[in-house]
Amino acid sequence: MVLQRDREIHIWGSAEAGEKITVTLARNTSSIKSDSAGHWSVHLPPMPAGGPFSLTIQGKKTVELKDVMIGEVWVASGQSNMAFGLTGSVRGPEEVAKADYPEIRLFTVPKKIASQPQQNTLPATWQICSPESAKDFSAVGYYFARDLYTNLGVPIGVIESAWPGTTIEEWIDPETLRQNAELKPILDDAPKSDGVTLAGAKLPFGLEFDDFELIRETPSGEVLPFGNFDDGSTHNTTGGFWVYDWQSAPDSVFELVAPGRGGKGFAARISGTMDESDDSRWTARFKLDGSPTDLSSYLGLRFWVRGTGQLRVRTLQPTITDWDDYSTSLFHATDSWQSITVWFRDLRQEGWGISLPFTQNSLTGFSIENVTTVGYPPRPFSGLFEGMIAPLISYPFRGAIWYQGESNALKAHQYRTLLPSLITSWRNASHQNGLAFLIVQLPNHGAVPDHPTESAWAELREAQLLTARQLHDTGIAVTIDVGDPKDVHPHRKAEVGERLALWALGTTYAKPIVYSGPLYQDMKIQGSQIRIRFSNVGTGLEAMGGAPLRGFAIAGRDRRFHWAAASIDGDSVVVSSSVVPAPVAVRYAWADSPPCNLFNKEGLPASPFRTDEWPGITEK
Q1: Each residue of 107-141: pLDDT tens digit?
Q2: Which of 371, 405, 427 is the last residue of a domain?
Q3: DSSP states of 159-203 as a string?
């Protein structure tokens, strides 16, 4: 693990009531007796960066943790773009192969929804950064850690606590939401439990599978046996194998049981309990090395299943690196064996990621996703704070990086209150008023406008920028140039992590570097022109690519915006339009996917902004 340097080191746990506990780290020792409930907690003096050390906890038994480093610890949180794995990023496979950093440690908090603060993150453990541990870790978190390590030369720990598709209110502690009158509508609209579909409830499932076949594209529809487990193994006839992921569904079991369908051989059984945060995936790889196979001569897949639960089949193709695989709808299992046929022509994407063609000639395998009979209950407000942040609060860390907002874009004006509330709540709960908090401003995504228009995503970016300006020890990484208009999960994650690291290095660690792109400072009307001044210009402003400046719009008192001519003049940009002789306001990069190219000469983009305060489309 990595413990935060230059801060008191907090170690806590449980034992028998009244048991004497002695904690030793390097030459520092502290003793205490556990309370009547068996809880104990000690603080050791701050230590400089270094290691490895051994941490010993001695009571009636002794626990020794080895290879403990002292360095810098950050939490990486948010939704799917923070959870997006390294291997799916641009040049990700190349970076995975190089991800050999023994002094970078990675920790992934299991998905957990709770109505009360959780005490631990079992069964998760710290892992040394290696190609194997880094490949599915947060790409943004990895690139951030890599750059901090390269520049600081001290051990780095990153704790990923993220969940795709989540809203910010799920990550804020409940008391903060209750105390803010502006956020009361969130509580009023919160899902109510019916006592059965309670978030976090463990529900049983049990499914048995047998006789997988590929259906050939012939008049008779002949089949190719794919796997029936009768030889007691999980190999299949295309040369690959089946694998089950216990980490995503820890309270489950995979096993081969006899007899299989028809009273002979074996069947594959997956059983246990799951809540809505678990993800039971059983995956068939067509080849041992994970390479693709051409299935263009097949119409579909057939297999037999029985038991309790629901399932869907997802095909796996290399071109899809997020969660929007081609899949079936849900199938319901019964007590008796039933045949399920998956016709490739009927597979569909859910449509929230990116639309890509189905590559039947290039599939690496398929997975069977098992869910409980109840399905997915609604997540309550604060459920992720209680389940995935509360367990971290007692563990001192330097700061947090935050990539979230897509799920709140339609309520962007409310985000002006929500994001500061989240930051304040984490600082208060952890008793770290100076906790650094770095925000990823949402990248370009969605329609590229033909003319100036309103935009919910632009208003969300503005809420992020305002937060970074209003709260101390808070920063922003502008990513308006590295998104994808057609993909809500852009793959250029290296730039995101690198820009977060730049801000941390330039502020938290006081390195003498240019750490931000241009940020709007103020405006001055000069006749038919408006002069915009910026901070963080570095060694100067420039139009990226040498082209004329794009993305500026100007309006008069009628509040109608028109594309504007813009030119760089020192640390300012002068904006004008022949159709707006008396301008009063300017906007820059104000769209879902704006055409824009203002940077500083250090290659960092200017943040989108507006000079007006006119009501936006999300202000209600």
Answers
A1: 999 988 888 999 999 889 999 999 999 999 999 99
A2: 371
A3: EEEE-TT--GGGGS-HHHHHH-GGGHHHHHTSPPP-SSS-TT--E
DSSP letters spanning 420-433:
HHHHHHHHHHHT-T
Q: Kindly tell me the sign of the dihedral angle through the C-alpha atoms of 141, 146, 151, 155.
A: positive
The total of structural domains in the chain comes to 3
**451 CB-contact burial (10 Å; exposed 0-12 / middle 13-18 / buried 19+):** exposed
Residue 129 CA to residue 150 CA, distance in Å, equals 14
**Burial class of residue 256 in the structure, from the number of CB atoms within 10 Å of its CB (0-12 exposed, 13-18 middle, 19+ buried):** middle
What digits encode the pLDDT tens for the residues 529-582?
Answer: 999 999 999 999 999 988 899 999 999 999 999 999 999 999 999 999 999 999
Identify the domain containing residue 574 by its residue range: 519-610
CB atoms inside a 10 Å sphere around CB 319: 11
Tokens read off for 117: 């603060």
Q: How far apart are CA 476 and CA 534, in angstroms?
A: 15
Residue that terminates a domain, selected from 453, 488, 508: 508
Same domain, 364 and 290: yes
CA distances from 161 to 61, 173, 207, 389, 528 (A): 31, 15, 30, 7, 50
CATH assignment at residue 307: 2.60.120
Asked if residue 197 belongs to a domain, the reply is no
Task: Let me know: does 381 contact 173? Beta carbons within 8 Å.
Answer: no
